[in-house]
Amino acid sequence: MADIINIFDYLDNESDEFEAGSRKHETDESGLHGYKTGSSDPYINKKEGSVISNTGNEKTINVTALAYNTASSLDRRLGDGLIQPAAEDVHTVLAEEHAAEPIKSIEDINRISEYLICNYRYRDNMLFIVGINFGLRVSDLRNLRFSDIINENNVFKDRFPVFEKKTRNTRKVRRNRYITINRAVIEAVTLYLQNTDNVKLSDYMFRSESNNSKNLNKPISKQAIDSMLKNIAIELGLSNRMATHSLRKTFAYHQMLMSGNDPRKLLLLQKMFGHATAAQTLDYIGITSEEIDEAYLKLNLGSLNYNYLVDSSIGENDIISA
């Protein structure tokens, strides 16, 4: 009967037995596949369990257990004692990250809205919901009035035009962008109005609450919006780099996600945002960085369990012939 020993104990106690040698793929009597480099070297298989010590000098290591314990997708933490703390200060020169990021998680979007509502910040919740559903630049968002989205008979409009501030003097053909009002926006605006007195159709939707303009019909500043978003990220422990562009990028990111990355939606967003190329739009949204991450994570050259050919219909002959 083979003795069962813990894989990390084996690696600690038998590390001296790992000698260089030619590796040969073999199958043992039980049908387990692995590599053997000599009578004292480890024989690797994929059987459930720990290290199995066979008769003689051969030993069997469970690669699945090793991979799970050292490189699990759920836990990237090394085992205790495998590496010592840094012995000196290490300084790496990196460019400062400036770009705002979209909020990619629906759960995080809901958490932000719930957090603002629970703290009676109805204006801020309205700004957040309108921002991620309209996809406007903050210069246009902050200047919206209730009369832009609500008729004089107190009915929400189906859609309304915006003459975008940044591009009104740069585009060859001056045109409005039309914004459709969805249910999420109606809910957020209604909640604000239900909890705020003396609101007029002519009021800015996102009035400044600073001491200097609390009683004036004056829109919130861009700096105040930026500070609000950054503080929300800190308070909720979000990993996003939050800034005013996060609202517009969140709109675009979820438009692409909702469409299943339809190329036609990409071209539509490119046109809406006034970008020169579709690649510029992808980079702005943040999808390019996700694809770069995926390219690294899926490659895994040299891994027995996680390389890109595992569970793939692509064979080596296909790659060579290609």
Please describe what this structure looks like:
Mean pLDDT is 77; it is low at 1-55 and 59-74. 22% of the residues are buried. α10 (263-273) crosses α11 (278-285). The protein has a 4-stranded mixed sheet. A two-stranded antiparallel sheet has the order 2-3. A two-stranded antiparallel sheet has the order 7-8. The protein is an alpha+beta fold. The protein is built from 13 helices and 8 strands. It has 2 domains: 3-71, no CATH class; 106-290, Intergrase catalytic core (hpI Integrase, Chain A, Orthogonal Bundle), CATH 1.10.443.10.
Give a quick rundown of the structure:
The chain is of the alpha+beta class.
Question: How do the strands and helices of this protein lay out in sequence?
Answer:
Layout: E1 3-5, H1 7-13, E2 24-27, E3 33-36, E4 42-45, E5 51-53, E6 59-62, H2 63-71, H3 106-118, H4 122-134, H5 138-141, H6 146-149, E7 159-162, E8 177-180, H7 183-194, H8 222-236, H9 245-258, H10 263-273, H11 278-285, H12 287-299, H13 316-321
Parallel strand pairs: 4-6
Antiparallel strand pairs: 1-5, 2-3, 5-6, 7-8
Keywords:
322 residues, alpha+beta, hpI Integrase, Chain A, 2 domains, four-stranded mixed β-sheet, two-stranded antiparallel ribbon
Query: What order do the SSEs take from the amino end to the carboxyl end, as H and E?
Result: EHEEEEEHHHHHEEHHHHHHH
CATH architecture heading of the largest domain: Orthogonal Bundle
Enumerate the strands of the largest sheet in spatial order, edge to edge or round the barrel.
1-5-6-4
Number of strands: 8
Report the radius of gyration as a whole number of Å. Answer: 29 Å
In CATH's first tier, which class of the largest domain applies?
Mainly Alpha
